[in-house]
Amino acid sequence: MTTPTIELKPSSHPLSDAEREAILTDPGFGRHFTDHMVTIKWTEGRGWHDAELVPYAPLSIDPANMTLHYAQEIFEGLKAYRRPDGSVVTFRPDANARRFQASARRLAMPELPVELFIGACDALVQQDKAWVPEHGGESSLYLRPFMIAAEVGLGVRPANEYLFIVIASPAGAYFPGGVEPVSIWLSEDRVRAVPGGMGDAKTGGNYAASLLAQAEAATHGCAQVAYLDAVEHRWVEELGGMNLYFVYEDHIVTPALTGSLLAGITRDSLLRLAEDLGHPSREGRISIEQWRADTESGALKEVFACGTAAVITPVGTVKTKDGEWEQSGGEPGEVTMKLRKALLDIQTGRAEDVHGWTHELG
Ligand SMILES: *Cc1c(COP(=O)(O)O)cnc(C)c1O
């Protein structure tokens, strides 16, 4: 089966420059979408076909579409940034493409070739380049590739037809008023993923599993939930959509990939970037008892969360059912902010990219 090329069928009535500029002055997150999308179909026996860039539009879905009933769905998230010279780059799209393949394997879906994933993202960004915010600040064009089962029927088995789509949404700075620490609720009862489950796949099902704890966090005045392992309810895993890092005096540590947490690309980039900046970094295991004790003894200096959307978010207050404590006096930590700037500088083209992470549109 051959890899299809993406046929360009652009809109004859994209938004006017004035309308687009009005949106770009305050895009928020995930509220507005660009003029186009890329769609690619997969059918058993035929493989990937009908790859096209078309005007952004609603899908027509049969009520018995399998995704609606059994949640065979996976997604990705990556950003395109405008560099100082006006050119546009994406950050490590090959890593997203490979993770998308791993998620597909876990959900018994077909694997999209890496080149086709990157090609689809490139085609959309190229077509809707005017939607990539100006250089400066932290604004970007957020890309959301995803795949759903396209077969109709209520029989329970992997579908024999799929639809891959990429849409794009301009994103303003995550912290328009300056970086602010996030408050965290430590969920000791509810888990988001279990050993042997799909916690290491990027799938909507994991988010559905996390929403109730997220709502509980809000009743405790917290913005995010930290999940613990599902067996001992003791080992820190990650937030609902971000990985965690613990900053000690002489090293930084992030929870090891046990299979029930997601292998964040930001997490992976920071393991390497921290070393470049003189902070030995490693993967390890942190219990809630240790988290609290090391904060109280002063050994644990800072904690931060990381992911594509917010890049790096400092952790401020941590609440559990037995009490609460504050990280670094509730202020963004020094190492946290240094790493945040270093990563953003590479992503936005202000600093040299020695790792070859940024991808120019093909
Ligand atoms: C997407 C995601 C992350 C962050 O991954 P990045 O590649 O850094 O954006 C972390 N945890 C979960 C559950 C996620 O879905």
From TrEMBL:
It catalyses: L-valine + 2-oxoglutarate = 3-methyl-2-oxobutanoate + L-glutamate; L-leucine + 2-oxoglutarate = 4-methyl-2-oxopentanoate + L-glutamate; L-isoleucine + 2-oxoglutarate = (S)-3-methyl-2-oxopentanoate + L-glutamate. Pathway: Amino-acid biosynthesis; L-isoleucine biosynthesis; L-isoleucine from 2-oxobutanoate: step 4/4; Amino-acid biosynthesis; L-leucine biosynthesis; L-leucine from 3-methyl-2-oxobutanoate: step 4/4; Amino-acid biosynthesis; L-valine biosynthesis; L-valine from pyruvate: step 4/4. The modification N6-(pyridoxal phosphate)lysine is found at K202. It is an enzyme of class 2 (transferase). Its EC number is 2.6.1.42. NCBIfam families: ilvE_II, PRK13357.1. Belongs to the class-IV pyridoxal-phosphate-dependent aminotransferase family. This is Branched-chain-amino-acid aminotransferase. It comes from Streptomyces genisteinicus.
